[in-house]
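call fold(seq) -> tokens
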Amino acid sequence: MIKNFKIFISNLLAIFRKELLGYFAAPFAYVISGVFWLIAGVFFGIILDSLIQNAAFVDQGGMESAGMDVASQFLSSYLGVIISLILVLLPALSMGLYAEERKRGTLELLATSPLTNWVVALGKLLGVLTFFSVMMLPLWIYQAIVFSASDPALPVSIILLANLAVILVAASILSLGMFISSLTESSIVAYILSFILILGLWIVDVLAQRVSGFMGDVLSYLSLFNHFNTLTSGVLETKSIVLFISYIFLGIFLTAQSIEALRFQRS
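ret:
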């Protein structure tokens, strides 16, 4: 059993390393990162300047400003913008996870290799999620600068929980996008279908806010963005973590089944 576990870890790390290095070697990935950092930096300045001006206006007007928590408002506003940005970005990262393998004809080799489908899917997901986390590094530095100077200081636990929510949303969407990528050899088609899926998840969130009763509760529970808002507000709920893990597991499971179907066709 220990030997099998070591083989599993070794294979997983091999797939993870290959996928991660593939992103760092792709010029397109740097273009995506550069555009993301530019837009995120612009919104960082706009949101921070707007909140500072609002706080200054309240003070100059002699109004009570004790209840205005600039740091908390900045965190929720900025991460809300970041989520909107990555909803467009993530399909671009996941579209080639399997589609390029299909296009080059290497997916058949991967499907018939001794590696299990779960190892391949998990390794690819960890690779793209790690690359996304690297893309988030400058944004975390931005936040560290702001919150180190904020008064009153925002609890570190709230900051970490809010950023964990971003990573969990990204992992969920990347996992589902990976499954879509396994269905086609066209990266463009994979991007479009992944984006449609994201729109579907957004519609679920909208319906959850408009529908009442049992169906409203179900839609609210299934909404990624509802649970994202819960975590960014500093509330850690077990059901939110379970929901994100369920989406991630679903994506990996469907991907593994998709590759297993290809393995069966080639056998």
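Residues 2-266 form one domain.
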